Structure formats: C-alpha cells, structure tokens
Amino acid sequence: MPPSKHPTYPQSTIHEAVCEVRFSTGRPWEHALSGELFKAVQNEYPTMEPVVQLGVQLEIGPQGLVQTAGPRPLTRYRHREKASLLQLTENSFAISFLSPYPGWQVMKQDFLSAWDLASRALKPERITRVGLRYINRLPVVLTTNLALEEIDPRLRSRISDPGLVDRVYIQAPDYRRPLQEGSHGAVV
Predict the structure, then answer these.
(1) Which tens digits make up the pLDDT trace of 72-108?
(2) In CATH, what is the architecture of 14-55+66-136?
(3) Among the listed residues 18, 96, 91, 19, the one whose alpha carbon sits nearest the alpha carbon of residue 57
C-alpha cells in the first residue's frame, strides 16, 4: 500500500522537526570535518555557516557528576531550495525541517540521503544515539484585566518574552469588574 499524502494545515503547530544522530569516530574530533562534509553536501546545501553555541554537559562516571561548559563550534548548511538545514558539531549530525513541515516520508527520505553523504565524509565508527524531536508552537490568546506586575511570576516571565509573545494593549472599559456605580476600570 503506498504511503498516504501528508496532511497540511493552514496554521501548523510544528515549528521545527529535527532528526539527530550522535556518533563516535574512534579518533580525536577535527574541525576540518566541517569542510569535508561541505564538499559532500554542497550541491544540495550550498551555504555553510559557522556558529558558536554555548553549552553545558553533565556526565555521570566513575568520578561522579562531571560538568563541562563553554563554547561549542557548530556548522550549519542551508538547503538551496527547501526550508531545511544540516547541523554538524562534535560527534553529532542533525537535519532540521523548518515550517512548513513536509511530513514524515519527506523528512525520512531527506535524512537518509543526507546521512548517506555525511557518513562517507565523517566516517563514523559507530552510532551512539538517534533522536527525533518535534518543536511545536501553539498560538494562545490570553486576556486579562491585571497589570503585568499583578500576574503570577511564573506566567509573567513567559508572557514578557518578546520571542514568544506579541502583546497588544487594548484601552477599553472593563465590563467584568465595575469599580463604582456607572463606571468601569480600563483594561491596560
């Protein structure tokens, strides 16, 4: 039975879908591998962008809990046509699909194709983990007649983040809580 066509929605909640492979090469990591990968994928992913990512890693081993923090070099490769990109960092390769999500069949095929090219360039000795992650954004409308300072701090921190929220102030009478006879408080 052929796979069914992926449904599309005008207001899709999937903001990004990521498939990541962690691997070991059996040798020290070399930053030159970013260039090797670029040579392998440049026909489909012609734009290479070095990025510095700040990271924290916690590892439990014989010495107990070991924490390491610091900059982590990452290289992104942007697809020439699609809203997708490859990411390479030390012992990790991922493909991300940005909105609109093309569906699992397209994602799977593009990942397998990219991993085939990447594995030839990176020569992984073994795969240590495979992960699939969907990042959703759900639009929510929140109305209140409270001043921002009156809102619970746990909620206030989230609704104050301009990366997550578009705030609109509406100057209108508050018909829910009259203050005095014949007058109403304003929504701020």
Answers:
(1) 889 999 999 999 999 999 899 999 999 888 888 999 9
(2) 2-Layer Sandwich (3.30)
(3) 91
